[in-house]
């Protein structure tokens, strides 16, 4: 199966500014940032979307949330506040079929999004 773009980033086949990585996940800066801080957190396992998560992914998901918390602290946005977004499927605006969490911060974010 063809590797996803994000799997290629995780495997260092495509360059990206990685801000954190471990054996389960990678966090890197979005190439088209929508806020002063815009980091994507992905599992190394190429799960296509939130909808494709399985019960056995529960521990991985817990780990990802803790990494998101730590990356936000590392980026200096935890105190001011930030947003975590997961786009799922076509109507959700998902463009890369590899589960990813957007961490957005460093400015006041509007709600609801468009
Ligand atoms: P989605 O729309 O699927 O939720 O988000 C995909 C995100 O990936 C977008 O914010 C887009 O800017 C980012 N992106 C797409 N291609 C690349 C790339 O090659 N490198 C990086 N760092 N980000 C990318």
In short:
It comes from Bythopirellula polymerisocia. By secondary structure, the protein is α+β, with helices and mostly antiparallel strands.
3D architecture notes:
This protein has 2 helices and 5 strands, in the order αβββαββ. The chain is α+β, with helices and mostly antiparallel strands and 114 residues long. The chain has one domain: HIT-like (HIT family, subunit A, 2-Layer Sandwich), CATH 3.30.428. A 5-stranded antiparallel sheet has the order 1-2-3-5-4, with helices on one face. The N and C termini lie far apart (34 Å). The mean pLDDT is 97. Guanosine-5'-monophosphate is lined by residues 5, 16, 28-32, 87, 93-96. One of its GO terms (molecular function) is hydrolase activity. Residues 5-114 form the HIT domain. This is HIT-like protein.
Task: Please supply descriptive tags for the structure shown above.
114 residues; alpha+beta; HIT family, subunit A; five-stranded antiparallel sheet; 5 strands; 22% strand; binds guanosine-5'-monophosphate
List the ions, cofactors and other small molecules found in this model: guanosine-5'-monophosphate
SSE topology string: HEEEHEE
Query: CATH top level?
Result: Alpha Beta
CATH fold topology: HIT family, subunit A
Secondary-structure arrangement, i.e. CATH architecture = 2-Layer Sandwich
Strand order of the biggest β-sheet: 1-2-3-5-4
Return the average pLDDT rounded to an integer.
Answer: 97
Question: At the fourth CATH level, what is the homologous superfamily?
Answer: HIT-like
Cα-based radius of gyration, to the nearest Å: 14 Å
Helical proportion? 10-25%
Terminus-to-terminus distance:
34 Å
Major pleated sheet: 5 strands, antiparallel
| Secondary structural class | alpha+beta
Strand content: 15-25%
Q: Please indicate the count of domains.
A: 1
Parts with pLDDT < 50 across at least 5 consecutive residues: none
Beta-strand segment tally: 5
Keywords: Hydrolase
Protein name: HIT-like protein
GO molecular function: hydrolase activity
Pfam families: HIT
């Amino acid at each position: 199966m063809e590797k996803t773009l994000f799997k290629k980033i995780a495997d260092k086949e495509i360059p990206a500014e990685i801000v954190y990585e471990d054996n389960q996940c990678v966090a890197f800066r979005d190439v088209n940032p929508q806020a002063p801080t815009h980091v994507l957190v992905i599992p190394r396992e190429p799960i296509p979307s939130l909808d494709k998560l399985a019960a056995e992914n529960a521990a991985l998901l817990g780990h990802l949330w803790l990494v998101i918390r730590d990356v936000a602290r590392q980026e200096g946005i935890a105190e001011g506040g930030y947003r975590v977004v997961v786009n799922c499927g076509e109507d959700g605006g998902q463009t890369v079929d590899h589960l990813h969490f957007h961490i957005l911060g460093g400015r006041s974010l509007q709600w609801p999004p468009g």
